[in-house]
Specification:
The chain has 149 residues and is mainly alpha-helical. The longest helix has 34 residues. The two termini are 24 Å apart. 1% of the residues are buried.
Length: 149
């Protein structure tokens, strides 16, 4: 959608502005400021927000509300796609029950990230989950949609 596209563009401008400023202050190249992953959101942004002259606490709260909103939006899109495939494959299933099962399964899978080894698992998922697996999942989705319709 248009709002999602503009949000992504705005986030990109903000990210590289903050990284450029941090690189300038630290006198290092931008590639050496911070690695990708959770360090970007939980190290770079808070350090930039702490330097605000006007209400840094307000902007910190707004930033983390934005992260929560973007996370919920992404989770909603992913969940609705899975629910649609499951309910279209088996029209007799109750959509409410399918939604509940998928949400509980997602919650239980997400509990792995709050264990003592959760940060290491997050790093593995972040590194390996964004490459070839996305292509495989897209192909599975295409086959599923083609088979149903």
């Amino acid at each position: 959608s248009i709002a999602d596209t503009f949000t992504s563009l705005l986030a990109g401008f903000v990210i590289f502005s903050i990284l450029g400023n941090l690189a300038f202050e630290l006198k290092v190249p931008v590639k050496d400021v911070v690695d990708s992953g959770p360090g970007l959101a939980f190290v770079s942004y808070p350090s930039a927000l702490a330097k605000f002259n006007f209400l840094p606490q307000l902007f910190s709260v707004l930033f983390f509300l934005m992260l929560a909103t973007l996370g919920l939006g992404s989770a909603t899109g992913l969940t609705s796609g899975i629910i649609a495939v499951a309910c279209d494959t088996n029209p007799r299933w109750s959509k409410t029950i399918v939604t509940g099962i998928i949400c509980v399964a997602g919650f239980l899978i997400g509990l792995v990230y709050i264990t003592p080894g959760g940060q290491a698992i997050l790093t593995l998922v972040d590194f390996f989950g964004g490459g070839f697996i996305i292509f495989v999942l897209a192909m599975i989705e295409i086959v599923s949609v083609s088979w149903i319709y």
